[in-house]
Amino acid sequence: MTLDKFLVVAAALFCCGLYTVMTRRNAVAVLMGVELILNAANINFVAFSHFLSRVMGGQIFAVFVIVLAAAEAAVALAIFLRLFATTGTVEVDTADQLKG
Amino acid sequence: MNGPSDFIFYAAAALTVGSAILVATLPNIIYAAVALLFAFAGVAGLYVFLSADFLAATQVLVYVGGILVLILFAVFLSNRLADVKISNPGHFHLPAAAVCLVLFGVLSYTAVSTPFAVKTAVYLPTTADIGEMLMTRYLLPFEVASVLLLAALIGAALLSRPERGTPEKADMEEGRG
After folding, report:
1. Domain that holds residue A18
2. Nearest chain A residue to B114, by CA
3. Are the beta carbons of A15 and B23 separated by less than 8 Å?
4. Disulfide: which of A70, A95, B10, B90 matches A23 by Cβ 3.0-4.6 Å?
């Protein structure tokens, strides 16, 4: 268990999340990809904090990221439900009412 | 550290990455949500190896217990149960896969080839320290985060509440009934 192993795992997680965000049409699935990306960033924060420093700033930062992810998920899902009530679907490429 | 702990580390890493790949590729979004559960659990296992016990518990409580339930609610509420079109094909598969593979190569090459000044790792309980730092050095971000959570809560409740009083909305709701 060295630092680079954790970084490689986080990179794989990030790339899976990025692939999910880029390929999915369903907005809820896109949100799942965002959560994967946030988890990858969290692993990096905690791994760097654990291996490179004695203070726990990385873990504190990860706590705040988790808080923000929870808030973001709640607001995003409320928006999705409103989108579904308006258009009858949550596919991201059908939500183009603001397109000029 | 050798032996069983290494094995458990590789198991947690494989669980995380494998579940993340399933999240990215499974066509059925409910299966993807279940795979996301295992990915979050694997990340919690990785936190244990980074001596982040508080974060591991928080990960299980907030992600597995909270966010995943929210996502499942959204999946079930945002699909008409009559026409089960839950699995739909994505788009841009090939370019997205190319970009992600190249990015993964670059990131992992950078991670492996960079000489980090690694200190000897210590494994100590962190919950008391995190609590103390949240109340002293990181008090302002803590308070800002609490206000943000309150705002997000009110905003989510306001957004998801059905509008009453506007006649066109009432007509739409009756028509959908």
Report:
1. 3-88
2. A4
3. no
4. B90
